[in-house]
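Lecture notes, part 5. Sequence design as translation. It can be helpful to think of inverse folding as translation between two languages: the language of shapes and the language of residues. The source text, in structure tokens, appears below.
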């Protein structure tokens, strides 16, 4: 049987890893796929650098359209990232009747609906396991392994950079800026870390998981995104004292009113497995009605972990090449004409628990005023710590954990608390999730 010819768009970290894994495990991959999978061509920016990675037997070009227009290429692997050129290349490959494998979460989160529609019309596949959580096979789990379940919620640590920063802040008691500089020195954070530390990268990935989990279109523009740049070591310490850890979580839930889609720092009970995911590692919890809570853990980035997912997609596409397009696993797990129009809830309508930290003057009646404001809005307190003022200080930290309430009520409460003459400055608010499996 003829080999499957692959064209790589990009031969950087992931592209080089993909080439390495395909060559090293060629016999094993052929045994699984049923035929050879061969990288025939690659488009790169730097020919000299690419030659050192690929050797002389691979055709290397600088024009990526030469790859997508080559009639001998069966599958195009897009690894260049970004929204614009990548979109043009993917749509051109689809128009040319080629299957696509991509690791580009930003592209799919923003333009996935258009891309999947084009692929459906042309009868080709777009595979994207590597777009979420690197080497962790979470897309396959959601699309296939959990297909018997009504997914109730998904919660994930899906950005290794922010998880590394939060781990270091907790373990070493360092400030955010100090740890960010260290993450950049180690290569975990980009020179411009905005996509990571402000939660945008995680929101791209969460958008994809929500679409597959609930059978809804991609709706990245409706995701609530809040990063970790304003977190302080004090809040991380107080959370620990209360039995919680702070993680940047991507959370999507099915509710009676619609779908929650949010990324933000979150207190999680320290006893939960996901609370103990450290460093640059990723983990995703999925709660299904039949199976309960399942957790997927591993490396969310890096050359070979991500290449593992890219090559798995190549094998999947190869296996399915001869199947009738109507009988393939749908891109978003649900049949394209059966996607739900459930609304994405605005953050004000989200229901969760909260950690509140306020600076109060050390005088009688302060806590009574605060608890009355909360009670008037139907917010009950689960736990409280009142710290002694530091020497020479007139104010002390008060930390409250609330039971579940709706965000708009917490917003109203915070505004009223900040207006009290006995409270100094802004109230710090961090959302809290128990992530119970029952």
């Amino acid at each position: 049987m003829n080999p499957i010819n692959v064209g790589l768009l990009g031969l950087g970290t992931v592209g080089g890893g993909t080439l390495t894994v395909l060559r090293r495990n060629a016999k094993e991959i052929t045994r699984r796929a049923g035929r050879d999978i061969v990288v025939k061509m690659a488009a790169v920016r730097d020919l000299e650098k690419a030659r050192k990675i690929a050797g002389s037997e691979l055709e290397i070009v600088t024009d990526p359209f030469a790859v997508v227009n080559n009639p001998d290429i069966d599958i195009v692997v897009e690894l260049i990232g970004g929204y614009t050129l990548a979109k043009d290349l993917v749509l051109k490959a689809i128009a040319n009747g080629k299957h696509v494998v991509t690791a580009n979460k930003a592209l799919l989160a923003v333009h996935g609906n258009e891309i999947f529609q084009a692929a459906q019309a042309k009868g080709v596949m777009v595979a994207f396991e590597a777009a979420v959580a690197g080497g962790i096979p979470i897309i396959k789990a959601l699309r296939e392994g959990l297909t018997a379940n009504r997914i109730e919620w998904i919660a994930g640590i899906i950005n290794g950079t922010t998880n590394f920063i939060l781990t270091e802040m907790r373990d070493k008691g360092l400030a955010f800026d100090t740890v960010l500089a260290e993450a950049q020195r180690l290569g975990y954070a980009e020179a411009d870390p905005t996509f990571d530390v402000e939660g945008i990268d995680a929101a791209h990935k969460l958008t994809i998981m929500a679409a597959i989990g609930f059978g809804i279109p991609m709706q990245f523009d409706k995701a609530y995104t809040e990063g970790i740049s304003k977190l302080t070591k004090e809040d991380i310490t107080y959370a620990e004292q209360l039995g919680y850890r702070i993680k940047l979580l991507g959370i999507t839930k099915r509710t009676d009113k619609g779908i929650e889609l949010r990324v933000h720092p979150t207190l999680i009970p320290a006893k939960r497995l996901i609370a103990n995911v450290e460093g640059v590692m990723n983990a995703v919890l999925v709660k299904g009605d039949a199976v309960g809570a399942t957790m997927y853990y591993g490396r969310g980035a890096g050359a070979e972990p991500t290449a593992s997912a890219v090559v798995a997609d190549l094998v999947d596409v190869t296996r399915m090449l001869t199947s009738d397009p109507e009988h393939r696993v749908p891109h978003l797990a649900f049949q394209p004409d059966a996607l739900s129009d459930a609304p994405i809830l605005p953050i004000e309508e989200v229901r969760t628990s909260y950690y509140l930290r306020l600076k109060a003057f050390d005088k009688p009646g302060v806590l009574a005023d605060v608890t009355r404001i909360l009670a008037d809005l139907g917010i009950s307190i689960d736990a409280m710590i009142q710290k002694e003022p530091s020497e020479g200080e007139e104010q002390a930290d008060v930390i409250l954990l609330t039971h579940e309430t709706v965000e708009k009520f917490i917003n109203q409460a915070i505004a009223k608390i900040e207006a009290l003459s006995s409270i100094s400055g802004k109230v710090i608010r961090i959302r809290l999730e128990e992530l119970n499996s029952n």
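The translated text above is only one of many valid answers, since several sequences can fold into similar shapes. The two ends are 50 Å apart (CA to CA).
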